[in-house]
């Protein structure tokens, strides 16, 4: 019912709607309406209440709770099933559990805080409460395990486009799974999968974005290599707007990929916003280190480099550093 | 304490051990000893109890309960952590949960019955109570996802060798994951993994063996293509002996693989007992069907065939049928 009232207020944002009208529309007493309005104010909603005129929504809080997301989401697959936690160990871990229990494709787990956020290879990922976007998407595409890397590229394309659209920041992609602003990391993507030998059961795409984090909150060793949207654009951004835009663009790219089996659209975006191509790179792959120049992405999103010996080779995975970015000077 | 008594009886199998001796050895009253002996008899242990002489173990039941396995296991990694269920939906599913909770490498889940046993691609697998071996091994090797197929070959080598050693049956390997006797399937292997793009988190090896199943118990459509050890050798076999032999040989092959990073030992066994090599094969891979002749296995255990056009190609995965076996006539 709180959701219904909120939805009515949002439809009339900035305009008054009378208690009586709300009462009739939603089918509860005016006292019940009043109680829910009080709760919404406690949740951080700025609402005018003027006698004889009614209620007027001035401003929503920066919240990712379900009411906000569910009312405004426009997708038809990605995020239609949303699960929200104020705090959780890791949205990827939770998504794995949900997937094992049969959660449908497109299910999104989102949290206001991660107490055990992980980056690649189990590395710790700082995920403070209320200032970032920590979410995971469950996918069940018909793919071979070796193709899962495509989903990382698709996600990088979606997140970068969404960040640029909503915030105007100059986000770029450090192949394969980091989003960069001003040479510092603002977002990491962690793709995990459950698979049989030749068939993916499900893929979990974890997305962690530093949105309104104050750089002073980062630990010292992180501050040198990480940034936030707030630091880049100079003010706070509503996380909800970014989430909805990511889900929307992700859905477009993902449905296009399923339909065409081509990564063309995502790879075009990845090339356009790449901070890797044209630069010197250092790649740690298994037990060797490769130095070279990043030349291009293949149609599947793999990195093509010219190595020190002058030979052109294709890199499918590995730890990639780009000269001048983060810790590779 | 029941385990201690059983262990003492087993050490003296066929010989009498007095209640007093047991009482002193284990540190409980003779009445307690008597009660546990009574329970062991109810569990199916055949035990003589003769006044003034004591207790004598004649015969163990065909059980996979922990006491039996834990007392006799000789491995140091595979199966050192054993988890037994009288009945469970699927040992692979349970192994996935245990792995997610941090179960150590080598953990084995074993059940007397599966109510939702699965073969590849989610196919149903008949797993009746008390007549088969349904178990899963949790592994955490440093592997790329594409290498997981090696573990299937290693498992096929271990199971085939163990079945031959213990039962004298003429088990053969239908590449990549079926064990065959008399052209019918006696065992299936289901390898699943959790992985990041370039690193395996863990691998679950599911092994399902029809041991003492009476072929009459198979559904009609299964009877034509499935067999059991009992049908092959003409009598029942203690499942425990097979389990212990599998774990032992699996451990030898696995530790050798980790040490040498070479599949030589497993592939040698896979070639020796192959029912695929030298025969006409039909391979369903993605959306195409390949006909050809199976020529060889590579050093990594992949199948080499000569296709209808006369070209030699390497098959990494797919649904393989061998002319003359099961449903490919």
Give an account of the 3D structure.
Chains A, B: It catalyses: biotin + L-lysyl-[protein] + ATP = N(6)-biotinyl-L-lysyl-[protein] + AMP + diphosphate + H(+). Chains A, B: Residues 58-258 form the BPL/LPL catalytic domain. Chains A, B: Biotin binds at residues 90-92, 114, 118-120, 185. Chains A, B: GO terms for molecular function: ATP binding; biotin--[biotin carboxyl-carrier protein] ligase activity; DNA binding; transferase activity. Chain A is 33% helix and 26% strand. With 329 residues, chain A is an alpha+beta fold. In chain A, the strands form three sheets. Chain A has a seven-stranded mixed beta sheet with strand order 3-4-5-9-8-7-6, with helices on both faces. In chain A, strands 13-12-11-10-14 form a five-stranded antiparallel beta sheet. The longest helix of chain A is centred in the C-terminal third of the chain and has 22 residues, at 239-260. Chain A is elongated and about 80 Å long. Chain A starts with a helix and ends in a 7-residue tail after the last strand. Chains A and B meet through helix 5, helix 6 and strand 8 of A and helix 5, helix 6 and strand 8 of B.
